[in-house]
Specification:
CATH class: Alpha Beta
Strand order of the largest sheet: 2-3-1-4-5-6-7
Shape: globular
CATH architecture: 3-Layer(aba) Sandwich
Number of domains: 1
Radius of gyration: 18 Å
Order of helices and strands: EHEEEHEHEHHHHE
CATH superfamily: Pyruvate-ferredoxin oxidoreductase, PFOR, domain III
Oligomer: single chain
CATH topology: Pyruvate-ferredoxin Oxidoreductase, domain 3
Amino acid sequence: MAEKKRYNIRISGLGGQGVVTTAHILGSCLDNAGNYASLVPFFGSEKRMAPVEAYVRASTEPIYEVGEVIYPDIIMIYHSQVVTHGKSYTMPFYTGLKPNALIIINTDFDVLTEDDTKVLEDLNATVVQFDATKLAMKIAGTELATNMAMMGMVLGLTKLVNTAHIEAAVRERFLGNSFVASGGTAALDSAIEKKFKKKEQLLEANMNVINETFKMADTIDITGSELIVRLKV
């Protein structure tokens, strides 16, 4: 019998980092794998650098709850300001965190205070820190792939899906179901094909980022006794 898994995920970041896009792709990944998901975005002013959160419930069994994730099993933090400057709707950032939970932070430096560390140690949490933005720039050539790095890490750690399920979801997000050439002039056909090729290149770059974070996740033991796992990029 397959292992039953259930994760309540809170994703926090700033506008323009792809927090809501991540939630949508996570939902599609789980559906592709024959699992279940419910997702809710939550944001105020729709502008770059404004606080954004999204909530995803992911499970191998049917889900009947919707709405904000009050008690997360996993917290994903896309920008260190969520921790240090209160750029989040839920403060402190670990509010409601369940015991034995997982926190993934996009950072290349330590952002937790002594008080944060004490609380998380008492909860037996695991904090995975890695520079997702640096990885996105290194592999995809753009910081816009930061959300792909974060998504690859959480899916690699939870093992709810495989990379084929993710690629199908990312392809649907960026390319749609299929490519249909125009029935008009050759010039228009050529323009559409060029646009499609650019999207194919974007898909490939995003998947390269995801595949790399999947490999990084395989090196982590989230059931270990270490509070903070720092990964080099």
